[in-house]
């Protein structure tokens, strides 16, 4: 371990809505969330005594958990003993504390969980500060993987801004029922992950639940894209905290949707940073070389 040169971790896409992993809700009630690590990775390298971080494979502020993933790699690179000395729960909370309390970048717990473990998992983030992972079998996740496409809108978002609005004192109590339903939907998804009809309904329900606390989770650009691509997908939702970043589409024909997007991108003057890519799941999690 002392001679490592590179630490890498995958970013993630949330399949269910993201608020159940966020405080203060998580501290008060605990929550469930279904997410998947994807093949795009971030890196921390040790070069001549310096730590060099790279996010070249995925846009920052994209709603794919990049900030927590890169901080996970940096924390392990700067203190590799963490890998063997601490439990998964402890490692998740160490990155969470670094990101939220030291750097004041408000976010939930799902990003570092996916970065560390990889795979497609139903996560339980308990109010007693324990984290339980319920992996979904790969033979079942293939059905989902073949139907997912991510569109990065080209609109950067700030997760901290969205969290501050959603969990503001005047808003929090009103949104508790919606977040409780998000947890229920996440558990239903885990059981129906290879059922196209059920997943269509559940992803669409997640989108509407996600935006209930704050309608700005879904931006005008997202609405326009969803409208222009209509007929090419079954369901869609904003990823992460929303308010920009990326959209997740559920479609029986990913190649056709990608072709459709590339056509309207040329015609409709979408942001030059916008792009689309099929989802490939990552099952390796954190890698130290």
Secondary structure: elements and pairs:
Layout: E1 6-14, H1 25-29, E2 31-47, E3 50-54, H2 66-78, H3 82-85, H4 88-102, H5 110-117, E4 120-125, E5 131-135, H6 138-145, E6 148-152, H7 159-166, H8 169-191, H9 196-211, H10 220-228, E7 235-238, E8 246-250, H11 254-267, E9 275-278, E10 287-288
Antiparallel strand pairs: 1-2, 1-10, 2-3, 2-4, 4-5, 6-8, 6-9, 7-8
Helix pairs in contact: 2-4, 2-5, 8-9
Keywords: Kinase, Transferase
GO molecular function: fucokinase activity
Protein name: GHMP kinase C-terminal domain-containing protein
Structural summary, described in words:
A hairpin with a 7-residue loop joins strand 7 (235-238) and strand 8. Strands 1, 2, 3, 4, 5 and 10 form a 6-stranded antiparallel beta sheet that branches. With 289 residues, the protein is an alpha+beta fold. It has 2 domains: 6-135 and 282-288, Ribosomal Protein S5, domain 2 (2-Layer Sandwich), CATH 3.30.230; 144-278, Alpha-Beta Plaits (2-Layer Sandwich), CATH 3.30.70.890. 43% of the residues lie in helices and 21% in strands.
Cα-based radius of gyration, to the nearest Å: 18 Å
Task: Summarize the helix and strand pattern as letters.
Answer: EHEEHHHHEEHEHHHHEEHEE
Strand content: 15-25%
Q: Give the number of domains.
A: 2
Number of strands: 10
What is the CATH topology assignment of the largest domain?
Ribosomal Protein S5, domain 2
Shape: globular
SS field, number of helical segments: 11
The percent of residues in helical segments reads: 40-55%
What is the averaged pLDDT score?
Answer: 94
**Amino-to-carboxy terminus distance:** 8 Å
CATH architecture field of the largest domain: 2-Layer Sandwich
The CATH C-level name of the largest domain is: Alpha Beta
């Amino acid at each position: 371990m002392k001679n490592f040169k590179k630490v890498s971790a995958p970013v993630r896409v949330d399949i269910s809505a993201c608020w159940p992993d966020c405080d203060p809700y998580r501290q008060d009630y605990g929550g469930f969330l279904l997410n998947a690590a994807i093949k795009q990775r971030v890196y921390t390298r040790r070069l001549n005594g310096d730590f060099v971080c790279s996010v070249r494979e995925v846009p920052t502020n994209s709603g794919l958990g990049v900030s927590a993933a890169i901080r996970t790699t940096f924390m392990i690179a700067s203190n590799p003993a963490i890998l063997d000395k601490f439990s998964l729960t402890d490692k998740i909370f160490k990155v969470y504390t670094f990101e939220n309390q030291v750097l004041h970048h408000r976010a939930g717990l799902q990003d570092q969980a996916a970065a560390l473990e990889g795979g497609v998992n139903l996560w339980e983030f308990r109010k007693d500060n324990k984290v339980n992972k319920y992996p979904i079998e790969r033979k079942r996740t293939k059905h989902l993987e073949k139907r997912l496409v991510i569109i990065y809108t080209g609109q950067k978002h700030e997760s901290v801004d969205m969290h501050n609005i959603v969990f503001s004192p005047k808003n929090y109590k009103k949104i508790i029922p919606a977040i409780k339903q998000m947890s229920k939907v996440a558990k239903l998804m885990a059981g129906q992950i290879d059922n196209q009809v059920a997943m269509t309904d559940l992803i669409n329900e997640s989108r509407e639940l996600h935006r209930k606390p704050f309608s700005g989770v879904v931006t005008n650009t997202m609405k326009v894209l969803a409208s222009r691509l209509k007929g090419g997908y079954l369901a869609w939702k904003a990823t992460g905290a929303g308010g920009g970043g990326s959209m997740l589409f559920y479609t029986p024909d990913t190649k056709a949707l990608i072709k459709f997007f590339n056509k309207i991108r040329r015609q409709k003057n979408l942001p030059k940073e916008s792009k689309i890519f099929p989802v490939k799941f990552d099952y390796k999690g954190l890698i130290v070389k």
